[in-house]
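We keep the chain:
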Amino acid sequence: MTRFTSLAILIALSGSVHAQAPTDPKAEPQTQAQIADQLNTEGRELMYDNKPAEAAEKFRQAIARDAEAKYFLNLCTAQLTAGKLGEALTACNNVEQNRPSAEQTEKANKLIARIKEEAKAQNLPLVAEGGGASGDTGQTTVGRPLGTNLVVAAPPDNRYTWTLGVDLFGGGGRVGRADYYGSAIAGARVKGDYLIDPVHRVGAEAYFQISHLGPGKNDSVLATTLDIFDVGIAGYKHFCPGGTPRLCITPLLGAQLSLMSPQGEMDETGSQVFNYAGVGGRLEVSMELAFGRRYEHVLSIMVGANVYSAVLAGPSADSGSLTIAEAGLDQGGGAGYVGLGYTYRFNTPLGSTPFVVLE
């Protein structure tokens, strides 16, 4: 057995208490592996309750009975969460010495990177305790506990950190003067959400969307089609009956800058231009079905409406482009729609190392 593992087990033994023997005389005696698994389960529950110090003790006891890579990973996570960076580094270093899977090795490497980030952020010299990578110097590296619980709890929930998603929608309405453009509208949206208040499931969404209206019934109109590019921000709230079901209802209200391109107007390079600017709003209610290990995949259906002001700024009369009035955009409008969407949820603070799913 390597020096890492031997020393780590000695540390675990010195800090552990023996699990009680079964009180039922008829019960089959438990193996060391079974006892270790039970201790690990208890440690996981303590981590979900945000008690990393108590959880670390359980994981040390599990290691003392059965030195598996997953117990070292969990101990590393607990010690990192508690701010015991030196002990966390030792535990993560020992993962590689105990026949880890490729996924476990990747997790250990990500945790080690996070440990180093925390040590640097707290201006602490990082020393792996008990024979870590820096040698057994007798020093210790203890910093502030993390403000965030790193673990993803086992029961899935409709809470997350941020998301990326796409919607396809279609509907009908009127934008601009009557009969200048068609009443049917189709479009696509790319969106990103950030859950500002996980307790109350309140978040903000940034999005951009493009919509297309075909030609209208007025044959004298110079422009026959209209493309609208919206850039907006919205607020929303998930209503999930029953606490943490897979199904949620989400109302959303947003405001957007609306850029319009009648007749698919192009510049001299052949790129479409959106020279007519107004403002708009978006009102939507969606029903979302979440699935996956932590509800990371979301399918949604939605009904909503985009509303638009009259164009506020556009090309001048001598620019060679249609004026706002000639394009029929001196009047506002709106369109209702129905749509389908897919969203992927991340349990990762933006710019940080991913949260940990305990082994």
Observations:
- The helical segments are 3-15, 32-48, 52-65, 69-82, 85-95, 102-121.
- The chain is about 25% helix and 30% strand.
- Residues 1-22, 131-138 have pLDDT under 50 and may be disordered.
